[in-house]
Amino acid sequence: MHRLGNTLKRAVTVGAVLALTLGMATPATMSFADDAAGGGAGQSSTLERNQKTATELDENLETKVTLSFPGKQEAEPSDVVFVLDKSGASAQTDIFNQAKEFLGQISQKAKDDGLDIRVGVVLFNRVGNIQQPLTDVVTGYDDILNAMNSSLHSGTNMDAGLLAAKSILDADTAVKAENKHVILISDGATYLYCKNGDYTKPYTRSFGDPTKQTNPETHAAYPYGSNKMGGIWEWQSREYNLKNDWKKFSDGSNFIFSQAMKSPEKLGEYLKYYRDQYENSDKNWAQYDYEYTDDARNNGTTNPIPVDVNAPCNIDVAFWSTDDTFQSMVKAGYDMNVYYKNAADFDGQVFLQYLTRNSNNGQLDTDFAEIKAKLVDKIAAGSTVEDFIGADFDFINDPAKISLTANGEKLAPEKIDDGAYGFGKLANGSYRFTLDYVNGDQEMLKLTLNEAASPSKPVVLEYSERLVNVPTEPGTHTLNVNESAILHPVDGNGIRGEAYKFPVPTVEYTVPEPEQKPEEPKPEEPAKPSDKKPVKTTKGKKGTMPMTGDTFSILPVVGLVVAGAAVCVAGIILKRRNH
């Protein structure tokens, strides 16, 4: 018994300790975003996603809320593809050197701010050449620069270069269209084109040698020109051997290529006419297309175009083919940037302006400031966060319970008025950040940024709320700390981006079950008179007992009594013996 008692005591003790241990191991009720903020041991210093967390309710029913942004996901990854004309002198212009300087700047900024920028390089000569696929601008900087510095020759096919760039960007479905940027640098010359989106196979067309063709009006050979071999000067064979006043532009000038290159508007009118001829004329002008192989480049074609005012030449087809590809990229939402520096014999500036009529109002880019701001200042001055509190909690409007950290520096709030705070006061009296509190039915906090923020230097706002709509129903209640919090980004050019929602944190509040009172014993009911009739007894004979019901035998009872007495006697005798 002693041993059993000790064992029971030990079991009770172990159970109590186990219960206490399990109780202490229960975690606080908090809600986090999917990815933790960086800064801890073994973690990156870059914030991966916008976060919003809340601590467990304390004895005052208060919770501390922490809001951190921007994450890399919300700053958004970007793609940049350089499309470079390396077939002529345009590859070595000042704008090309600016492009390499721009590459170095965004590489350093991406490294410093934790930005996700990938860069690819396409060179075009007679085909599109993907010299560098999309590569991280930080880790792959040298490879990207080497690709930009490489050189190619033989032909000019801008259509092929754009098609190659489009294929790269189309394949990257993880990046939004508006964050895909094309940087086209060219002198505007192009005379080759592609078919069916195949940027590896160039086509052209040629009038051959006009002096070997007969003019149907004069029945004599055409007097001017030579075999241009499907090159950039094919238009001269048509223009120099025919009357130029056969058709007029809307401004009254002759309807010829050299006049079309005077303005984007006239070029558009010109290309529309010749495209209609190419696609709809019963003369089937498209039959004169041929693949621009090495042999064709050196020897021309055996199927020359008849010299005719209605016959589209190769540069016409090249221009509208390039424009089709360019406009399809604009329609896809890609950011198209076109740079020109004429250092070649052919002046294609008007054609480049024509390309940008739907993307940049016909204007060419002259520097890289705007695209740089798009890439590296994703969450810039003017960005805001709107945090709607909801009905269950109230914001605690106490500066002692509000703080903001930016670029690793904790900034104390300065009260501007009852509903506004400033953080990081500047020399001109303004603030780096402001927090506005709107009380009432739609209780809200609005944080405004007056400087850029980045994933490696996130902004962290901390404040407190108090539970005011306290549950009364027994049980554990999961409560949303706020209704919603939304980041409204503005980039470095003042362009608003897509809004992003923060996660909604929750806390738990438990209402205990009411104590059960012990049940009181029910009062005894008074005995009711029996419904049974009394049983008559009959006086028995001598030696017998009166009986009711079944016959009763006394012998078994006597036997049990005797047996019990025997056991007691045996026990007494045994005890005495032991003594």
How would you sum up this structure, described in words?
With 579 residues, this protein is an alpha+beta fold. The chain folds into three domains: 33-73 and 378-511, Immunoglobulin-like (Sandwich), CATH 2.60.40.2110; 77-198 and 320-376, 3-Layer(aba) Sandwich (Rossmann fold), CATH 3.40.50.410; 204-311, no CATH class. Helix content is 28%, strand content 21%. The strands form five sheets. A seven-stranded antiparallel beta sheet has the order 14-15-16-17-10-20-21, with no helix packed on it. Strands 1, 2, 11, 12, 13 and 18 form a six-stranded antiparallel beta sheet that branches. A five-stranded mixed beta sheet has the order 5-4-3-6-9, sandwiched between helices. Helix 5 (158-171) runs parallel beside helix 10 (314-331). The chain is elongated.
